């Protein structure tokens, strides 16, 4: 399922890149849109504004896909030859923000596991899934905020 979901994200990126090309935005991707959406949230957890869009991309990708995909995209930014140089504090905050299982694929795992145990409660589990993802994401972001507060490089 994860491979299919990543393939769907690649398909969406291809469509967005094609549509963005008509308007002069050839680099339009789902990650870029998520970066713009999650940039204020990244700023609120302690990332400097000039790095918030990049951090927002990773937080959004973690929420939409999963943390493994987000960490894989984040890994090149940890080296010296990165296209965008991030501060050490930003790297630490992003590392904490990505460390958790609050994502949309977790809802499917939850439905599959608990839905087989209690099939009559499956609609209730599905309804609570989004709330659980939001609560888990806020928990991860709170840990990242606290870590950023105490870390000074």
TrEMBL record:
Gene Ontology cellular-component annotations: plasma membrane
GO molecular function, a single term: nucleoside transmembrane transporter activity
Spans through the membrane: 93-118, 130-151
Keyword terms, alphabetized: Membrane, Transmembrane, Transmembrane helix
One Pfam family cited in the UniProt record for this chain: Nucleos_tra2_C
Tree of life domain: Bacteria
Official protein name in the record: Nucleoside permease nupC
PANTHER family to which the protein is assigned, alphabetical: SODIUM/NUCLEOSIDE COTRANSPORTER (PTHR10590), SOLUTE CARRIER FAMILY 28 MEMBER 3 (PTHR10590:SF4)
Domain Concentrative nucleoside transporter C-terminal: 1-148
InterPro entries found in the cross-reference section: C_nuclsd_transpt (IPR008276), CNT_C_dom (IPR011657)
């Amino acid at each position: 399922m994860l491979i299919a979901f990543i393939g769907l994200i690649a398909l969406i990126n291809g469509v967005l890149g094609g549509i963005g090309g008509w308007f002069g935005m050839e680099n339009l991707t789902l990650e870029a849109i998520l970066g713009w959406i999650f940039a204020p949230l990244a700023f609120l957890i302690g990332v400097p504004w000039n790095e918030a869009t990049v951090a927002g991309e990773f937080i959004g990708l973690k929420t939409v896909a999963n943390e493994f995909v987000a960490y894989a995209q984040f890994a090149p930014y940890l080296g010296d030859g990165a296209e965008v140089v991030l501060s050490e504090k930003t790297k630490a905050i992003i590392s904490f923000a990505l460390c958790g299982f609050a994502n949309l694929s977790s809802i499917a795992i939850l439905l599959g596991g608990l839905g087989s145990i209690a099939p009559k409660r499956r609609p209730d589990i599905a309804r609570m899934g989004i709330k659980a993802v939001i609560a888990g994401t806020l928990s991860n972001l709170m840990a990242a905020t606290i870590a950023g507060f105490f870390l000074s490089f």
